[in-house]
Every structure is written in C-alpha cells, then in structure tokens.
Design goal:
- There is one protein chain.
- This protein has 280 residues and is α/β, with parallel strands linked by helices.
- The chain contains 11 helices and 8 strands.
- α6 runs parallel beside α7 and α8 crosses α9.
- The structure holds nickel (II) ion.
- The site of nickel (II) ion (NI) has 5 residues, from loops.
C-alpha cells in the first residue's frame, strides 16, 4: 500500500475534514502515514494523531524556522516523548536560509540542528531533515556529525529533496534516503527529475508534505495523501517501472527506514490469503 512518509494532518487546513480523511485512508490505498512535528505543539499533536489512528505514526522535532520555541525544557520534552512506541523519527529538523538571512539566526539554527541530531543518536531514531537554500552548511554539519558516529548506518531522510544529484549520491552512499513529493510532477522540476533518474529507487521515500506541495494537476490546492498516486506515477515514469512497483518499493523503503513492520497493516488490509501470496 501507499506510504506517506511526511504529512502534517494536525494543520488547521484539515480542521474541517481531518477525521474523514484519516479514517478513509485504507479505502484509497494509503497504508501508513508519518505525521511530522515542526514545533513542540505540533509534535504533541502528531503523537495524539498516532494514538488515535492505527496507521498513523509520529515524528517529533523542531523545524529550523521555529527554533524560538525550543530550549532545554523543549529538548527534555522531545527526549521524553521520543520513547513513545509510535514515535519513529526525530523531525523535522535542519536549516532554512530562505527566510532567515540574519547570520545570528542562522547560527542558532545550526546549534539546535546539532542538538537534535545528537538527541536522535542518543535515542536511536532516524532523523527527518528539512534543508532549504542551505546545502553547504547542512552537508558540513552532517559530514561532521555522522563522521563522529560511524555506528549509525541509517541516519534518516532528506525530505522534499531540492539539491543536486551529486549531493543525493553522497547522501545515499552514507545510508540516507531521499524524500520525493509533489515537486517531481512540476514542469520546472528538471533538477529533481535528474536526481530521481540517477539514484536507486530503493532509496526513495514517497511523501506529500501535505497540506503543502500538491502535485500536478492539483498544484496550488490543499494537498493530502490521496494525491500520492500522481507522485508515484511520475517516479515510476522516470525509473521505467509501473506505479504498482513504485508503490511497493517505496513502501518497503519507508518501513525499513522507520522500522515499521509490514505485518500489522497487512493483517487488517482486508486482503484474502491468496492476494497476500501473490504479493510474495
Ligand atoms: Ni514538512
């Protein structure tokens, strides 16, 4: 089934139909959703969604543009909540230089990025990286940090990937996954298409980042996991495989990275034994 490795269903844009959307996932072929925090408050809401819906898992972390809400107390809270059985990653964390030009703010972003990487290493969870217009500093920090932690074989995912194919190849060689979402369907997505062409499909995670980043032909509208087939179709086209194969492989990738076993979702998927055998 389809795996949405990055969603924000706590967002107010889902206030009117959140229950309907999340209850109807299986019917639309969506098997698992990772709801990703970007502040302490949204991390808490992500856990609440994961507690309510069997197929929803949570990531807790503070986004680089939201670090003002983070401090020692926040770090303690994140550490405590990371032990929750449905918390599967620390994220989204990283650097965002698109809005913040102030060098002092950028230094603070780097500080809290490093601290959250350290936390993820401590609690042995993968990270979800948000990095925008900050390739050089992001890579510098990752090279340094994981250079000191060779024991970490699967650091995490670079979500909504927007850098060069070369950087993607370096990340993959170091065990990272590459998050690909709606942007891949955009007409001006040449660099991302080139990246997807060059990297193994076994390293791609499918994601929406909903309510943002709706794929074509829904660009500009509110996004949801229901639009993931458009993204899988496009990835399949680039890789020369069917949308079904793309779905199956990206689901396996995400399960592997987040450490979510396949058994549970299949038990309840309503598939007959024969259908399950076919898949094997
Ligand atoms: Ni996000």
């Amino acid at each position: 089934m389809i795996f949405d490795s990055h969603a924000h269903y706590e967002d107010e844009k889902f206030d009117s139909d959140r229950i309907e959307l999340l209850s109807g996932m299986r019917e639309k072929g969506i098997g698992t959703v990772i709801n990703v925090g970007s502040t302490i408050e949204t991390s808490e809401k992500s856990i609440a969604l994961a507690e309510t819906y069997e197929d929803v898992y949570a990531a807790v972390g503070v986004h680089p543009s939201e670090i003002e809400c983070l401090g020692e107390e926040g770090m303690e809270w994140l550490k405590d909540r990371s032990a929750h059985p449905k918390v599967v990653a620390i994220g989204e964390i990283g650097l965002d230089y698109y809005w913040d030009k102030d060098p002092e703010v950028r230094m603070r972003q780097q500080y809290w990025f490093r601290r959250q990487l350290q936390l993820a290493a401590e609690v042995k969870l993968p990270v979800i990286i948000h990095s925008r217009d900050a390739a050089e500093d992001t890579m510098k920090i990752l090279r340094e940090f994981y250079g000191q932690h060779p024991e970490i074989k699967t650091p995490g995912v670079m979500h909504c990937y927007s850098y060069s194919p070369e950087i993607a190849e370096e990340l993959i060689a170091k065990g990272w996954y590459i998050g690909v979402g709606g942007v891949v369907t955009f007409k001006n997505a040449k660099k991302l298409v080139e990246t997807v062409k060059r990297i193994p499909v076994e390293r791609i995670l499918s994601e929406t980042d909903c309510p943002y980043m709706a794929p074509e032909p829904y660009r500009g509208k509110r996004n949801s996991s229901y639009y993931l087939p458009e993204i899988l179709q496009k990835i399949g086209e680039i890789k020369g495989i069917t949308p079904e194969e793309t779905e199956w492989i990206t689901e396996e990738n995400a399960r592997r990275m987040y450490g979510i076993a396949a058994g549970k979702a299949d038990e309840n998927s309503g598939k007959t034994e024969e259908e399950k055998d076919e898949r094997l």
